[in-house]
Structure prediction request, 448 residues.
Amino acid sequence: MLKQANERVYTPTTLAYAVRRRDPELVCPAAHTPRETKRLSDLDDHEGLRMHVSLALFYRGGDDGVDPAGVIRRALSEALVHYYPLAGRLREVEGQKLVVDCTGEGVLFVEADADVRLAELEKVGLRPPFPCWDQLLFDVEGSSGVLNCPLLLIQVTRLLCGSFVFALRFNHTICDGIGIAQFMNAIAELARGLPSTTVAPVWSRELLEARNPPTPSLPHHESGVVLSQPPPADDMVMRSFTFRAADLAAIKKSLPRHLHGTATSFEALAAFLWRARTAALELPPGGTASLVIVTNFRTTAEMSLPTGYYGNAVVPLTVLVDPAALRGGSLGDAAALVRRAKATLTTEYVRSNVDELVLLGRRYLLPANMFALSDARRLGFDRVDFGWGEPVYAGPTDTVFGVSFFIAVKDPDGEDAVAVPVVLPRLAMDRFATEVEKLLNHVKPQLS
Prediction:
């Protein structure tokens, strides 16, 4: 039976609670670290990555008497010995090139207590947007800049029931999702008492420098699209949409026979959401509906990125289509386009992309009709265990117009599901929710 729309769409109910914070402190490496300057790669040094990204991990605790904030602070200091560039500061050198000045100044750490229980947070739904999030990760004054600021802000908030929240904000130029998950797992291993981390960090940013001279050999659609004005920010709303295993199975089974046995859940759900969003925004015929798939290339043959590399190692794979063709075609047509875009990932594509970025002066375009998707389900956040078990939620906390994540969550029955936070203008959001239900109603009866 199809679940009601209000069970699928998460808009947080009012839940207010007090949070008491101690003064922020700088946590430095526990031992001496090299004082040096390290260059970022040409892929790190990208206009679109000069921003901070926030993550949340919620843990079920108990009455063991062990303070998670103290355990994590100690392990953080030890982990920074190995990941000492994260304790430095970003500087700009000639040509606005970014480098890390490895000063050892440390990362910001905040300890807090909240008058709320994990069960109360679970009742309203552990999905973005989280109620009172600005209190669970307080924006310390002077910390949100890109240059000459701490690269990480961490807040550990104890809850009334013994559970706790680990919140982290990181400068995206220094690492990607897999990279920051690697660092968080290093902290977790040291917190659990391991003598060393199982994965040694590797810098090696020179591996992703542009060729000399830069010679892009392939088209990169995301670099040449004419920028259009996004809708007004004050009209935007964020909601999370949850897709259960039965929903994903129905979507996949509705695909043509040559796809429904081989299409991945990402391909099927990406196509589904792309069509729904295009309809909700009422993009006019003759224009472009762009899907950008943010894709990790660490395992791509011949890239030779070593195990432990924690810099940015993702590229955008873009597919362009007329909105009328996308809406008028089938879900199978859209899924085939997603699959075709994924197949363009090669070593030469990555090299060409880096070259293109350098020639364009590290420009980043996100047109109003571009929909970027990043799959955060297998980045490693869910494995971060500080000694209290794996988190009950682990992933991004928010997003912006034009960007969504696939986040691994549990449905009310405790089964695996996918949450997708979406930002749209208010009226378009209502249309999007309607489109999602309409499309699912269409595919559900095809389940045997």
